[in-house]
Amino acid sequence: MTSAHYPNLRPRRLRAHAFVRALVRETRIAPAQLIQPLFVAEGAQKGAVASMPGIVRLDLAELVAECRALQGLGIAAVALFPVIPPALKNDQGSEALNAEGLVPRAIKAVKSACPELGVVVDIALDPYTSHGHDGVLDAAGYVDNDATVELLRKQALVLARAGADVVAPSDMMDGRVGAIRSVLERDGQKNTVILSYAAKYASAFYGPFRDAVGSAKALRGDKRTYQMDPGNTDEALREVALDLAEGADIVMVKPGLPYLDVIRRVKERFGVPVAAYQVSGEYAMLRAAIDNGWLDERKAILESLTCLRRAGADMILTYFARQAAQWLADAD
Ligand code: PBG
Q: What separation in Å is there between the alpha carbon of 319 and the centre of ligand 1?
């Protein structure tokens, strides 16, 4: 606006020095707002994820060591995702209900080593089903909503009893939040938080995650009969309203950066805690460009997280959580 006519209007004044830029910055990121997704595996399932350079499937001992480091960095929580051996998968995903399974054992190991670190667990059947869908199929191959919800409520109960702080239904079945809330209440698990993947889109950006948990090869068809169409936002508001009415404490929008408008609408409409998930494909894109020398690592990652917060996300699930927390520990 500075011109011969408005000589005193200099917005650049507030950008001239680091101290003043810091004073007027509206949006910040703190480690306490970040959740680190981690892949848990045993034996042959361990090791690097090819489509997510830098991400490793951890066994229980490695998981505990990683969680100690994350807790030391002030990260809020970890979100655990299991890699289930093919021999334990079936069409009902029944390993999801095993109280001695990998996830219950991982929850107990993390909570006993790092009691201050929050533990979030996914409620969905896809790591456990031989067909790779988040629920069970009817005779026509359609994901049967109500039969799936019955299994999800059992899975949530098993994981809450194992000590999970937060259960995060990521399956997009109708009515699952209410079903999970009522079973938790009946069991006396009153403080188990439900973080619902309320507006979860049928996105191509989950590809690397499906490689990581080994559901990509198994998946028959796609998830468009339960995850949302990327063209819609009004529908996201209806999904969020339902999940809140059913008892969700936190609602999530997923993926993150391509869906900033959805985050903004949800935050403005409902004013409730909103999570964003910067998903595996977003990680892979940034990582690939960074590793090619095309983007500055620190600047690109911190900018992407700042933009998710600016759009209205209170918290972010991101594979960059540990790295970002390390940078945030140094002043900028
Ligand atoms: C499974 C689940 C998925 C993700 C989180 N939970 C994959 C899917 O819906 O196919 C994706 C996470 C990511 O891509 O980082 N219900």
A: 13
